[in-house]
């Protein structure tokens, strides 16, 4: 009895300690459950590529805000950890390391340019964190890397879409004038690799530098080459607008094809009336109001357009659309995996099938981390300062 009496206070203390431990454990579990799911991003919101990165950044912020208003993911808020590399690939890599080591993100959506993306890939691959790039270069997904995906069409796909259109119009000989920047060189090389599949030959091949302000000498050479039926300009930034203006000034009078890299209203503004008649491949987002009612992308494009323009007061662009698809693909993968574990998110991403985005309809596989074909491009023609879908043959 005496022993029992002495033990009772000790047992009560032990019980209290266990109770306190249980409460602490429960509190800790609740706290952990409420910790935010961190998604990283590095974009070029300022600098020479700001017209690409700024709508990407705005879109990512907007989507995460809307997602959190609906309760976040897995009962947890989502935190977007966003850095601006200013168009500097070295800064992009530094920020990628910070996202992995300091911010502890579970996924990454970003990489405005191919250069920045390629600089960041080793960081995320080594860390085993899924990375959805917003850049265009085919080398991002070829060869396939375990943790790397992308949302924009590749330059190879753009070449194929353009050559499909040329072949349908009976064009067999073309001139090419390409930018010497990374995008221009890459697309030129991809076009040369696939052009023979369409029985089309390049009979004049010219280039221009990133700072060139007059391309009339190169265009005159193309104009004076016998047999040319159309001209293709793989280019990016202001160069294609200058080419377009010079093309009109010289009165070349042939179909002019531009790349998907100029698929924004800013190109039309820069090129002015000379843009009339230019043809290019582009995502559905530019012609959402012109899509058929039965087109499954139409409601997705309309919703994003309305949301973005209301929040920013700016027109949508293909580049913001890449960001929208990137963040959607990642958050849907988290939902599908029912986990914020990076490996499980990666597996869910790779299992994506028939996701209807504003850029196209994505289906990833272990051998395809782009998931888009030429059918996700729309061939557009510029008429009177606007986009025309499926313009008639000229």
TrEMBL record:
InterPro entries reported in the protein's UniProt record: BCAA_transport (IPR051010), Leu-bd (IPR028081), Leu_Ile_Val-bd (IPR000709), Peripla_BP_I (IPR028082)
Residue ranges occupied by any Leucine-binding protein domain in the UniProt entry: 36-383
What GO biological process terms does the UniProt entry carry, in alphabetical order?
Answer: amino acid transport
Query: What UniProt keywords apply to this chain's record, in alphabetical order?
Result: Amino-acid transport, Signal, Transport
**SUPFAM superfamilies under this entry?**
Periplasmic binding protein-like I
Question: Could you tell me which Pfam families the record lists for this protein?
Answer: Peripla_BP_6 (PF13458)
Q: What is this protein called?
A: ABC transporter substrate-binding protein
Is Metal-binding given among the entry's keywords? no
In which family does this protein belong, per the annotation?
Belongs to the leucine-binding protein family.
Which CDD domains does this one have? PBP1_ABC_RPA1789-like
According to the record, the signal peptide region is 1-33
Entry annotated with the keyword NAD: no
Instruction: Give start-end ranges for the coiled-coil region(s).
Output: none
